[in-house]
Amino acid sequence: MAEDLVRVTEQGLYCQAGDFYIDPWRSVKRALITHGHSDHARSGSASYLSHTDSRGILRLRLGEEAKIETIDYGLPITIKDAIVSFHPAGHILGSSQIRIEHKGQICVVSGDYKTQRDPSCQAIEPVRCHTFITESTFGLPIYRFPSPEIIAAEVNQWWQANANEGKVSILYAYSLGKAQRLLMSVDPSIGPIYTHGAVEALNAVYRGCGVKLPATTYVGDVKKEDIGRNALVVAPPNAQDSLWARKFGKSSDAFASGWMRVRGARRRRSLDRGFVMSDHADWQGLTETIAATGAERVLVTHGYTPPLVRYLTDLGLDAHALETAFTGEEGSDKLDADKETTTENEAGTLQ
Amino acid sequence: MRTFVELYQTVDRTTKTGEKSDALVSYFQQASSSDASWAVFFLTGRKLRRLAPTALLKQLTIELSGLAPWLFQECYDNVGDLAETMALLLPESSAGLDVDLTEFVERYLLVLRNLDDSDTAAHLVETWAKLSLDQKFIFNKLITGGFRVGVSQQMVTKALATVSGIDPNVVAHRMMGNWEPSAQWYEQLIAAETADAMASTPYPFYLAYPIQEEVDSLGDIKDFQIEWKWDGIRAQVIKRDGQVFIWSRGEELISERFPEIMTAASRLPNGTVLDGEILAWSEGDVMPFALLQQRIGRKTVGKKLLSEVPCIFMAYDILETAGQDIRQEPMVARRQKLLSILMPGQCDAAPSCRGTLSEHLRISAELSADSWQALTVLRQDSRKLKVEGIMLKRRDSVYGVGRKRGDWWKWKINPLSMDAVLVYAQRGHGRRASLYSDYTFAVWHDGQLVPVAKAYSGLTDEEMKSVDDYVRKNTLEKFGPVRTVKPGLVFEIAFEGIQKSPRHKSGIAVRFPRIARLRPDKPIEEADTLAQLHEMLEVYGK
Question: What is the ipTM of this complex?
Fold first, then answer.
């Protein structure tokens, strides 16, 4: 077997044919970015290439100075000896699988992806390839996610019931992607929607890309007394631990995450509700997408890597684990401490 | 079935007692008598005998899910609960079954009792296909005997009392023993009060007030009946209509947990109510409270435990004799009646504390001291005798209700204390839900900090906020809701007793630890050592 088109180096996933990195975790000359989550888009590289809709997100995360180029889905470009194109991954706005072709070999780096419907971003398109690099965040068959319609109905019911009881509804969801997806699936006729600063900043970016979010108000812009008891507040999960959540008085809190599928994870969070909703593929999504690529070689990154590798091997595929620095869905028990500190500081500046 | 699943979910989701109680009340308000009887059965932890072998359940789940056995095992290891793993892996099905709880139990659970393995398999496959995810989870929990809900028997009792308007004590009494769920049983449970229930009813407990001033400010010592303050479970023993009932101060019926006291009390004349303390007692001496706790923890007591931790009832007072409420008679008269009941035929003025009726019914001895000074000296023996201090009861006092200042005093010995370092913190509940208010403390051993006590009270709100702030800024690790904290804060921890404990890494357990004060003046290096605690154990723990 010839050497892989993409391999892991100290800096990150490297493609020698094109002399570029994909979602590097250290500073490099040229970085191709699958999507804007912080474990995939890190600052410090000399230049970035991402999908057009990721521009605003990357600008927010990487700073004014970063050199960001963008490209639309499905347009092949040549980088050195490689032909590169971006294809929708269905994970968040602008999320892409990156297809690399060199000497007849095709490798697809999928970043993070999901197969469920999501009105806030373009749906995934599986890409035929020889080698597929896949995530495995929810790579166990116990992770089978209910349809988004069912979850939306549950969220609305919860919100309505809280409103009836005079409780503010605090919904914790990752500020990039999940928050906007939820905002588009809730029923704004139940009450006003408020957001944590981290969420509101990204709402602005989404709206800038033409995503039709319902009206939201940044919590920091209103007085505590003016927040109605029928309000929904959307905040990142780490705000749960902070002083921030105390200002709403009588409230019910909930977390939207794929981890909420398992009772132990729900209970450890000590929240009133857990909604099973993820921007990552569940077991079925993973295995179906892998099959649809027709890949014979599958490299498995972050998540339940060993079981997925073994399962694919049992199917006769050439599957292996790939060690990366990606982290998957926040809210498992291995919470990223850095992220939390940032948000707490951010929260602390609110009144 | 739907409402029962909803009840389970509401209770499972919340940690708030109020919400759990509300959910119980609204469930019982709408449930049919028959459904309610099954709900009481399951909610109070009663189980149907195992209805299907675990191996069969696993095998069926593997077949139906189409997974390799190793992948099933991988899932099970991650979830950590067989019933839940099966529910998550079995094929998705319809919206669920719409039958009431009774029909569900009878048609889908009890029927398993009479089936052989192959019929059991067919029945399970058919049933699973009809159940929603949540229903599957509960069904699996019930067939594996692992159904547990986060409500106490007392919460269920109170909810039933609220719904029926019956005294909770009566409900608790009627819920005891072995019974088969049925509409008829439930209707009796919540039927209006009758003589059967009255027989078990205890009196409210009268409680002593702690002495805060100098003890001689109480007046003449001769006006007081003086006893040791025993450390066990305060209880009432009732013998009426040939039946015996033992109630704890928490108004829990605990008769079945103390069969030796039941037997002893059956010798009391009908119409007798005694107030006293249950103690673990061996060879004329009280045993550590930790041993008594083993007895409290069991609903049914095995022979081994019964012989290893025998219990007695140490009588303090008599509230009813010959069916007459005598609580308004003076202490001194009641004491005479207590002696004549427990030591018939021996009207001794200075009795030993041994009753003659049974070795499991003793009388709390009266201490004699001529002066407050003499009593102060006597009190110093408390720790050695493993009592908590001294009780002082006015000889002319009636048996009142609740805690009142004036007639009954408790004069406790000063607690033991240690200086320990904060090592773990956890968020509290209720009002303190967003504060790190539950702490674990450690002392030094071989250059390492070994946890020795947990405490979550004793700080002012202001102090708690400052500790909360420290915890947030000095977190080393997070595990679920618990944070490992960088050692830096020293606390003085007060506690009532110290015992050997092989279950704890430190080898010791302290009783009723609480925070006495923050010690910002103390560097962590100067906190106490495990060796110092073991010295304390030598002196007080035997």
Answer: 0.90
